[in-house]
Predict the 3D structure of the following.
Amino acid sequence: MKSKRIKQIITASLTGVLTMSMGVNVFAFYNTAESIKGIHSSHVNMVDDMVALGCKQVIFQFNSSFVKNEQQMKAFDALIDAYNAADLTVTMGVMNDYQEGDEICPVSSPVSNLYQFNTLTEVGKERTRQVAEALAYRYKDTVSNWVIGNEINNQREWNYLGVSDLDTYTKAYADGFRIFYDAIKTYNPDARVFIPFDYNWTQSGGDMYFSSRDMLALLNTYLSDTDYGIAWHPYPQDLSNPDFMNTSPLATDDPESKIVNLKNLHVLTDYMQQTEMLSPFGSVRHLILSEQGFSSVMGEDAQALALMQGWDKVKENPYVEAFLLSRLVDAPSEVAQGYAFGLWNSDGVSETPTSRKQTWYYYQALN
C-alpha cells in the first residue's frame, strides 16, 4: 500500500501543470493485488470474512440507475472504502438496468434482464457519457478495475439492444465502451477497463447470443488503439453441475472449441497472443476471470473438488490476473435454478448468510 500511495503523490506532482491547464484532476491509482484470489460480494459487513478467506480482490455489480440516488451512492462509497481499507483490489461491474423514460436504455419498456448502453441516439450517447463521467470522477482513486456491461455477447438476456445484426450491435457496444474508457482514463490513467464475455467461444445461438470470438475480433477493429482487457466467465458447461472437467464436452483443446471454460482456458489466451490482438504496448491484454462459480446442489464435496481443480487450472495460466469467485453467499434466485454458488448458505429469502459451507475452508487453504 505504501508504494501505491507514493505513486499517487508523484503522479499528482508530475501532472500538476496538466491538471491546471485542462481543469481535470488527474490521479493515477491502481492497487496491485498480492494474489489472484478474489470473491464476488456486496456485503459490507463481511469484509473480515473475505480477508479471513485470504482474498485480495473483490468484485461487485453496479447498476447505472443507482447514480440517480445519492443515498444509494453513499452506501456504495462506504462499501468501496471498506474494501480499500482491507487492501482488496476493487473491480466494479457497471451494468445498465431498465430505467423508464431514460434514453440511456435502448427500449421504452422492459424486455430483458440488463441492457446495452444506448449509443444508437445522440441523447443516449450523452446520457451514457454523463453516467461514465460521474462514476469515473467519483471513484478515480478507489476503483482499480472496471467491467463495462455483462456478458455482452449474450444479446437477449444480459446486454439487450434490440439489434440482431452483429456489426451494428458490436459497433454500438464499442462506442459505449469508448465513452466509459475515455472518462475512466481521463481521471485515472492507471485504471484498467474490461470487456465481459460468457463462455461461448465459437458457439452462437441465433438472435440469442453471438460467438464471443466473432464479436471479440470485430471489437478489436474498433478498439485496438485502447488498452482494453478481457473479463471472462468460465463456468462449467452445465452451471448446476460443478464437475467441469468431466461434464464439459463442448470445451475442447482446439481453437474451434464451442466454449471456453476452466477446462480449456488456454484456447482464449492462445488466441489473445496473436499479434493483431496485442495491446498498443505490444503485450497480451489484461485478463480477469470476473465470474465463475461451482454449485453445491450435488453436494459440498463436489463443489469443493471442482473449486480445487479450477484453481489448479488457473494457476497453470500465466495471463490470469484475477480469479473472482461467484459468490460469497448463496443468492436465493440462483439457488432456485440449481446454482448454489455461495461459500455460505443463505436464509433462502435474501443473501443473509447462515452457515459456512466446507468449500469456504478449501478456498481459504488455496494460495
Remarks:
- The first helix runs from residue 2 to 14.
